[in-house]
Design brief:
The complex is a heterodimer of chains A (370) and B (354). A two-stranded antiparallel sheet of chain A has the order 1-2. With 370 residues, chain A is an all-alpha fold. The chains are: A mainly alpha (370), B mainly alpha (354).
Chain lengths: 370, 354
């Protein structure tokens, strides 16, 4: 058991360490632009500022959780796809449509009781995301159009839909630029701290649900079997096409919920140019978490903490917050170039590979699915 | 002519054609300018995917190149002030151009190493590049902009003599396509040359072989790994030109995330253009025309029943059209677009495979 955990966790942890080192080198190299002089202790200042910003205070911890919430839910949306051998680049679009759908519904029932408004608005977000996941799923299953391309395209279609909806039918009454009114009736209650909203709990509950779905339910078994070996799945009487459509819809549902909690709990309204990087960060989260719900939980917490501490880093160390984006990308880089990590740290023992991923970018561009 | 306008459906089409013809001189330069980075991006994708490497990192490569070109040109302009020559060329701009191309090529080396040597998932490799590019250019841009560096200038378009541009039809086409800056001119040449090379040269034959059936290519003595490396890195040149176009020809400033999805439209153009340079060029022009049409409808809406129809369509629809078309084409609803057979599959030499 310990050996198994080690084989799963070791490489991601070492990737994080290497990324911090590489990030530190970048900080030192660019320190003349920051302090006017080469500074060797800049990375230490920066990392200390991130840690104290993310964990140094109660508000900081809450901020970490608030940031981790959409990353966790969208990370599940990508991770569940991986389990079925599907690369869901569309968490972004599913998130956005989920956000839009929940906003639309929340604005529509703003004078009702929150006991009705909140569940309905959340549900709308899930349905919106589900639709945006169903489309590429169905296209993949029945026409062979590769989900990587279709989901990328749908991400941009989602942006256009939002721009149209918010500057047109959903535009607020007394606003100076294209945005909706504030969501009042369906705003998620703050449970703790300054902004620790209900979405955090929803995300926490989503982890065991996703784990149960994947590892304890029949459909989860079918998802994993289809991902590992579609032919075997078919011989065993499973229907890969149905599994593909179901999985993509499920992914969309999680990403849509992420969008809904973000709007209802954090932002409170939508703008015509509403955009986010959550969908792409979610890919990094899912990969760092080895596509396992518990792993995704930890990865989302890490990224959430880094984003929560980024502001503190900018204030105390003078480094732009974008440094955190660089660190996230470099973590993913080392994770992908696993062989380098293994060589540097002389890690032996077998690789706990995600077998499902092996089939991900095959048949790109439209090979008819079985 | 106007008498035909009242025929149902067909009348609308005739009105539309008349409107487009009337508006074309105004929007043609806008369309070409919008198409340049998309075409270059698609050519980058072409170099990758025709030899069997998927590249969704075009966006990131363009962004890095855009920043590198702008920063290098700005630094060089401070060091070597010069009066612009023909095309507005200064040493600073040339240094910027080279820096942009080099930056994109270096990024391509990373993509090649991850996807060819390490046989990592190529979609993940592209994702890494996009995430990294967004972070690093945003980070450096803020640091560099603190000292408010002067712009490095921008390339100018060549002016054709009036005797040519005043020719009917041809004059307009020449003016739109030839009376442009040097990077945009390079685009036209690149498209023609690559299209020719793909089908008429040894390199093209080998590239197609490696993209379709690498095992067979290796059997006849083609070094698959080497060819893929070379093509992916050369592809970076085009991503570099796309990025440099944005910051030292089309404009002279850098903004965080300024590529704004152009790398992904380029991917769409590549797919819609069936993985050929000429096809991608046509697709990019069509996508850019969709934007041009939107602009034109906003500025000078058509009159009559066509006007009612076109102004009723939300302007965002035109922006989304390229993506919708690509999905439709990929799904095979109208004419199927099929990727090179080995696209996305890492290659492992037979001798090394167990």
């Amino acid at each position: 058991m310990i050996g198994r955990i080690r084989s799963v966790v070791l490489v991601p942890l070492l990737s994080i360490v290497l990324a911090l080192v590489a990030g530190g080198i970048l900080m030192i190299l660019t320190s003349p632009l920051v302090t006017g002089d080469l500074s060797l202790i800049l990375p230490l200042e920066a990392y200390a500022a991130i840690v104290s910003g993310a964990f140094g205070s109660f508000d900081g911890v809450v901020r970490t959780l608030v940031n981790a919430t959409p990353l966790l839910l969208a990370g599940l949306a990508v991770g569940i796809g991986f389990k079925a051998g599907l690369f869901n680049i569309g968490a972004q679009g599913q998130f956005l449509i989920g956000a839009l759908a929940s906003t639309a519904v929340a604005l529509g029932i703003s004078d009702g009781s929150p006991w009705v408004a909140i569940p309905v608005a959340l549900l709308a977000g899930m349905v919106g995301g589900l639709i945006w996941g169903f489309v590429p799923g169905a296209l993949k299953a029945y026409t062979g159009a590769h989900e990587v391309v279709t989901t990328i395209m749908l991400n941009y279609v989602a942006l256009a839909v939002i721009s149209w909806a918010v500057s047109g039918p959903m535009r607020g009454a007394n606003v100076t630029f294209a945005r909706t009114d504030d969501i009042v009736g369906a705003a998620l209650p703050v449970l703790f701290g300054r902004d620790g909203h209900l979405g955090i709990l929803l995300a926490a509950v989503a982890v065991p649900i996703a784990a149960w779905l994947l590892y304890r339910s029949t459909i989860g078994f079918e998802i994993r079997t289809t991902g590992a070996n579609p032919d075997a799945a078919r011989y065993a009487g499973m229907r890969p096409r149905v599994v593909i459509v179901f999985t993509m819809s499920l992914c969309g549902l999680f990403a849509g919920l992420a969008g809904a909690t973000e709007i209802l709990g954090e932002v409170g309204y939508m703008t015509a140019s509403y955009s986010t990087g959550v969908g792409f960060d979610a890919i990094a989260v899912a990969l760092l978490g080895r596509a396992h719900p518990v792993g995704i939980l930890f990865a989302a917490l890490l990224f959430g903490a880094m984003q929560a501490g980024a502001g503190n880093m900018q204030i105390l160390a003078g480094l732009p917050v974008q440094m955190v984006d660089v660190l996230q990308a470099v973590i993913l880089l080392f994770l992908t170039a696993e062989i380098v990590v293994r060589r540097i740290f002389r890690v032996r023992g077998e690789t706990a590979e995600m077998v499902e991923l092996a089939s991900v970018s095959r048949s790109y561009g439209g090979e008819r699915a079985a | 002519m106007e008498a035909l306008y009242d025929i149902p459906v067909i009348g609308l089409v005739i009105q539309f054609v008349a409107y487009v013809v009337a508006q074309f001189p105004l929007v043609a330069p806008i369309i070409v300018a919008a198409a340049v980075p998309i075409v270059f991006g698609a050519l980058c994708g072409f170099m990758n995917e025709r030899s069997g490497v998927v590249n969704i990192g075009i966006e990131g490569m363009m962004l890095i190149a855009a920043f590198a070109a702008w920063w290098a040109a700005s630094l060089a302009a401070q060091a070597i002030p010069a009066t612009p020559g023909p095309f507005g060329i200064t040493p600073a701009l040339l240094i910027g151009l080279v820096a942009g191309i080099l930056a994109a090529c270096l990024t391509s080396v990373l993509h090649a190493w991850l996807s060819i040597s390490l046989r990592a998932d190529q979609i993940i490799s592209g994702t890494i590049i996009n995430l990294f590019a967004f972070g690093i250019t945003g980070y450096l841009n803020i640091l560099v902009s603190q000292s408010a560096p002067p712009a490095g200038g921008q390339f100018a378009r060549i002016l054709l003599p009036g005797s040519i541009t005043e020719l009917p039809v041809i004059g307009l086409v020449l003016k739109s396509f030839i009376s442009v800056g040097p990077i945009a001119l390079t685009m036209l040449i690149s498209v023609v040359v690559l299209q020719y090379l793909l089908y008429r040269s040894r390199w093209g034959l080998r590239t197609r072989a490696v993209g379709e059936h690498p095992r067979a290519a290796e059997t006849v003595g083609i070094d698959v790994i080497r060819l893929r490396y070379r093509n992916v890195i050369l592809g970076g040149v085009f991503a570099g030109l796309a990025g440099a176009y944005l910051t030292i020809e089309f404009g002279n400033a850098f903004q965080s995330g300024m590529t704004n999805g152009r790398g992904f439209i380029a991917l769409a153009a590549l797919i819609f253009g069936r993985w050929t340079p000429l096809g991608s060029f046509g697709a990019a022009l069509l996508f850019a025309a969709s934007v041009g049409l939107e602009r034109s409808i906003r500025i000078a809406p058509p009159t009559g029943s066509l006007g009612d129809l076109l102004t009723a369509i939300p302007s965002q629809f035109y922006g989304a059209l390229p993506y919708i078309i690509t999905i439709v084409v990929l799904a095979g609803v109208v004419g199927r677009s099929v990727a090179p057979a080995a696209d996305g599959r890492p290659y492992q030499r037979e001798s090394k495979a167990a």
